[in-house]
Amino acid sequence: MENRRADEVWKAALGELELQVTKPYYETYLRDTTGLKLDGKQFTIGVPNAFGVEWLRLRMRSRIEEVLSGLIRSAITAHFTVRQDDQGTTLVPSRGVPEYDVAEPDPDESPGQDIQAPCLNGKYTFGNLVVGQFNQMAHAAARSVAENPGQRYNPLFLYSGFGLGKTHLLQAIGHMALAARCEVLYVSAEQFTNDLVEAGRDRSYQQFREKYRSVDLLLVDDIQFISGKQQTQEGFYHTFNYLHNANKQIVMAGDCHPSQLPVMDPRLVSRFEGGLMADISPPCLENRVEILRAKAAQQEAHVPEDVLELIARQTSGSIRKLEGAINRVIVFAIAAGVDLTLAIAAEALATAPSDTNRNLTSDTIIERTATYFDLSSVDLKGKGRQKKLVMARDITIFLLREELRLSPMRIGALLGDRTPTGVAISCRKVAGRLTTNEVLRSDLSLIRDSIYSRASAI
Ligand code: ADP
Ligand code: MG
């Protein structure tokens, strides 16, 4: 029983941690962890490998303890252990398997048992997607493409801010096409880039081509990742043309309209714009309530209407945040062993740790990067060209773009009137070096830690 509770509490904690740390950290170190045991004030977390245990212990322990203590309302000590494969039933291999069983309202849309769903998450189906004014057009286009791949709307380009359902829609298309026996490939643009780099290094272009050109449906997520990466864009251009000419369907998702993607080959932009573009906006209050109702039903949790409305009123913006909030409220009541009432929900929401991402400002990024390099914000905004200064400035620019998604124009204005082109060059420089430069990776990781820690600790 305690183990089940540990698992539930940990799922809610993960929902909160996901909002607090950057995506690569979450994906690498947190996503595949499980809540193993809650014994008094001792909470044991199962981690897939020893490296992860070390990393979490050193870098995340206090944050995790803070989140758990908030949920359980008692000062919790976290322990990390390498999980044995036979230790529990909730162990989830990396991608491709549902994280937990959810009701499938529309069984014919969920991935069939006999059909391999490589890289698709079982819960991202059309059946689990709430449709409202905010995503109506994107949903209609996605449905149409899933039903008739390659025939209409090719390519389809979906765009929106973070956590509004792009990945969910892409994968829902994938599931549906897969059920109709199409060859489907879902990749992030980052994965595409890595595959291309690897093919170049190992001279295995043939393999690369086979992987990308043999499909009926190519789904590329987070396409903004290839901004400023000339060679990747070149590779993608050829893959795109090949598939498009063969009437194969291409669907992409990005964080902005194609024309707004910085440093993008105009040939690609015009290819993207030659299809259908559909955006998703943040849901209105009524739709937020509906989404929360669906999330509660998926967990088979009874959440009163007034509680749904309270959460919806207090949580705007992304659907990911809505999920985090409702999980917190549900687990809060379970942990306290009481019925879920308006008062309990209000308390759960009031004691939620602040969403550091939301509170993160450009000033924090500029100041903490400057401090890390032993410089001042004024230096970063100035015209100096010493090597260390230029590097610190490039990294600041990169972080402003990655963490806050600011436009190159805005970043230029924040850093002493630099041009958007100059800003894009800096981003490209850092992104390019990241793949090979260990020291840079470590610098970035330490600066990010400092940015996201409440006490400015370096
Ligand atoms: P994005 O790719 O735009 O950042 P995701 O697709 O990852 O967003 O969605 C974030 C979370 O919100 C996911 O868990 C997803 O299942 C959920 N979600 C998004 N849109 C909807 C929706 N319309 N109905 C129900 N859940 C949704
Ligand atoms: Mg996404």
Uncertain stretches of 5 or more adjacent residues: 86-117
Give the strand line-up of the largest sheet: 5-6-7-4-8
The CATH C-level name of the largest domain is: Alpha Beta
- Succession of helices and strands: HHEEHEHEHEHHEHEHEHHHHHHHHHHH
Q: Which fold does the CATH topology of the largest domain refer to?
A: Rossmann fold
How many alpha or pi helices?
Answer: 20
Helical content (DSSP H or I, runs of 4+): 40-55%
Give the CA-based shape: globular
Written account of the structure:
With about 450 residues, this protein is an alpha/beta fold. It has 20 helices and eight strands. It is globular, with a radius of gyration of 23 Å. Helix 10 (about 285-300) packs across helix 12 (about 320-335). It has three domains: about 1-95, GMP Synthetase, Chain A, domain 3, CATH 3.30.300.180; about 125-280, 3-Layer(aba) Sandwich (Rossmann fold); about 355-455, Orthogonal Bundle (Chromosomal Replication Initiator Protein Dnaa, Chain: A), CATH 1.10.1750.10.
Quick overview of this protein structure:
This protein folds into three domains: 1-93, DnaA, N-terminal domain (GMP Synthetase, Chain A, domain 3), CATH 3.30.300; 126-279, Rossmann fold (3-Layer(aba) Sandwich); 357-456, DnaA protein, C-terminal DNA-binding domain (Chromosomal Replication Initiator Protein Dnaa, Chain: A, Orthogonal Bundle). 54% of the residues lie in helices and 9% in strands. The protein has 20 helices and eight strands.
